[in-house]
Design a protein that fits this description.
By secondary structure, the protein is α+β, with helices and mostly antiparallel strands. The chain has 2 domains: 3-178, Ribosomal Protein S5, domain 2; 183-318, 2-Layer Sandwich (Alpha-Beta Plaits), CATH 3.30.70. It is built from 11 helices and 12 strands. Helix 2 packs across helix 4, helix 8 (217-239) runs antiparallel to helix 9 (242-256) and helix 10 (266-278) packs antiparallel against helix 11. The radius of gyration is 20 Å and the shape is globular.
Length: 332
C-alpha cells in the first residue's frame, strides 16, 4: 500500500503581506489568491523494518534512519512531531513542481501535502480549516519559519479565494465564484515568468515586520493600500473588468516595493522593462519578492510576442492554468 497526497501551489493576486504578523494582528489582513496546476506531493509507504527512508527532493535530502529519530528534513519532522509517535517504519517521498523560493507558497503547500498524507495513513479525518490551521502552526509556530498565513489556506481549499485574517487570529475563507468564461479570459490575459532565481523570503519578511512594528508611515500606509487592493481586485473579477484588474495589479506592485528594499532588484526590473516594452500592461512578483515568479497582465493577442521577448532573458515563461481543487489524499 502507498498513501499519496497532492496540494496546489498558488498565485498571490492581491493583498499579500497583510496576512503576515504583526500587521494582521494589529489591522487584520485580506488576501485574494488562486491555485494553479503546479503542486506539492507526498507519498508514504509502510515498511516492515523499524526505519524511516526519506527522499525529500524538494529539500535535497535522501537518507535512512532508525525509527524515532529526526529525518533532517524540517517539514517532515515538524509534521511527525504533531501527528506522532509513528510506531511503524515507512518510506516517505516528497517533491514539488516549483523550486523553493519561487513565490508560489512551496514550503507551506508542502507542509499541507505531508500533513494530509500522514492523516490519510493514520485514518484521522480532518476538515479543511483544521488542515490549514494545523499546517500553519507547524510551520510558523513549531518550526518558527517566517511567513504569513495565506499559503496553507490556499493549498487546503484550492480555487479562487478571498481570505480574511482577523485580529483575533481567526481566518475566514470565502470562495470567489467566477464564471468559467471569466477564468478563461483571465488565464489568457496572464503570463507567468520565472526569473530563474529563487530567493530566501525570511529577510524580506523580517524587514516588512520591522517596518510595521516601528510604525513606519510609508510602509504601513502602503500595506493598507495593498490590503484594500484585495477587495478591489475581487470586485474587478466579479465584474469581469480586466482593465481594472490590470490597473490594481500594477498599483499593488508599486506599493509592495515600498515595504522592503530587497523586494525588487535589477534582474526583476529588467524583466518588467522587457515585458512592458513588448506590450505587457502591468504585473507584480508573486510572494515576498526578490525573485521567483512574476505575474504579468498582457493583451491576449500580444501574449506570444511578449513571451518570446522574455525568452531572451535568463528566466523562462511557464504555462499554467487555474485549478479549483484543494489538497487531496488517497491510498493505492
Amino acid at each position: 500500500m502507498i498513501i499519496c497526497s497532492k496540494a496546489p501551489l498558488r498565485l498571490g493576486l492581491a493583498g499579500g503581506g497583510s496576512d503576515v504578523s504583526p500587521y494582521s494582528d494589529i489591522y487584520g489582513g485580506n488576501v485574494l489568491n488562486a491555485t494553479i496546476n503546479l503542486s506539492a506531493y507526498c507519498t508514504i509507504e509502510p515498511l516492515c523494518e523499524p526505519v524511516i527512508e526519506v527522499r525529500a527532493d524538494d529539500a535535497g535530502i535522501s537518507t535512512c534512519i532508525p525509527l524515532g529519530e529526526k529525518t533532517g528534513a524540517p517539514l517532515i519532522d515538524g509534521v511527525i512531531a504533531r501527528v506522532g509517535p509513528i510506531n511503524t517504519g515507512f518510506r516517505i517521498h516528497t517533491w514539488n513542481d516549483a523550486p523553493a523560493g519561487s513565490g508560489l507558497g512551496t514550503s507551506s503547500t508542502m507542509v499541507v501535502a505531508i500533513l494530509k498524507c500522514f492523516l490519510e495513513w493514520l485514518e484521522r479525518p480532518i476538515n479543511t480549516y483544521a488542515l490549514a490551521h494545523t499546517a500553519y502552526e507547524i510551520e510558523r509556530i513549531d518550526l518558527a519559519f517566517a511567513g504569513g498565513k495565506q499559503d496553507q489556506y490556499a493549498a487546503a481549499f484550492g480555487g479562487f479565494n478571498f481570505m480574511s485574517f482577523n485580529t483575533d487570529n481567526t481566518v475566514t475563507v470565502d470562495p470567489v465564484a467566477l464564471p468559467e468564461a471569466t477564468v478563461k479570459t483571465l488565464q489568457d490575459s496572464m503570463l507567468l515568468y520565472f526569473t530563474g532565481r529563487s530567493r530566501e523570503s525570511a529577510a524580506i519578511i523580517s524587514e516588512q515586520q520591522k517596518a510595521t512594528r516601528s510604525g513606519k508611515t510609508t510602509a504601513v500606509e502602503a500595506m493598507h493600500r495593498i490590503k484594500q487592493s484585495a477587495f478591489d481586485m475581487r470586485q474587478a473579477l466579479l465584474d469581469g473588468n480586466f482593465k481594472s484588474f490590470a490597473d490594481i495589479l500594477g498599483r499593488a506592485w508599486e506599493d509592495k516595493k515600498k515595504m522592503a528594499d530587497a523586494i525588487t532588484n535589477p534582474m526583476i526590473q529588467t524583466a518588467f522593462d522587457t515585458a512592458i516594452a513588448a506590450g505587457a500592461i502591468s504585473g507584480k512578483v508573486s510572494g515576498a519578492g526578490g525573485g521567483g515568479f512574476i505575474m504579468l497582465m498582457v493583451p491576449p493577442e500580444r501574449k506570444s510576442f511578449i513571451a518570446d521577448s522574455l525568452s531572451r532573458l535568463p528566466g523562462e515563461v511557464r504555462d499554467f492554468h487555474f485549478t479549483h481543487q484543494g489538497a487531496v489524499s488517497w491510498k493505492q
